Amino acid sequence: MISKDELEQFFRDEFPQSSFEIVSLEDRATTIRKPISHDHLRPGGTVSGPVLMEMADAALYVAILGSIGLVALAVTTNLNINFLRKPRADRDIIADCRLIKLGKTLAIGEVFLYSDGDDQPVAHATGTYAIPPAGR
């Protein structure tokens, strides 16, 4: 497992466009936060689906890299999301991820997404990542 500081530095170096904060990092789990602004909203005053999908995917990536190290070429092979309720337009989005399986070539996880301060999830996602062979 790598440290939260190492992973944050990796994202600053490799993904400077990313706009989320790693709140916590544990073995096979993470929580990340994204500040929501007007740019993230869709008509009707709710957070857009692509923002929620971005957060689900990012949380999976953070949890995987936090557990196996900086394997930058680990890639999403599948992402399924269920939108459960309208996210709050005036609250950050919180993504809680737990890895279900962490093998040598595949990782599978689930992510619950919340409007900050609400205990009912706004979305639930599952995803699979392909992990490249060592040395690639």
From TrEMBL:
* Protein name as it appears in the record: PaaI family thioesterase
Q: Does the keyword NAD apply?
A: no
Specify the species.
Marinobacter qingdaonensis
Q: Transmembrane ranges?
A: 58-81
Superkingdom of this protein's organism: Bacteria
Q: What enzyme class is recorded for this protein? A: hydrolase
| Ranges where the Thioesterase domain occurs | 44-120
Q: Where is the signal peptide?
A: none
Which UniProt keywords are present, listed alphabetically? Hydrolase, Membrane, Transmembrane, Transmembrane helix
Q: What is its EC number?
A: 3.1.2.-
Which Pfam families does this chain map to? Answer: 4HBT
Tell me the GO molecular function terms: hydrolase activity
**What residue ranges carry the coiled-coil annotation?**
none
What SUPFAM superfamilies does the annotation carry? Thioesterase/thiol ester dehydrase-isomerase (SSF54637)
Looking up Gene3D superfamilies in the UniProt record yields:
Hotdog Thioesterase
Q: Which CDD domains match?
A: PaaI_thioesterase
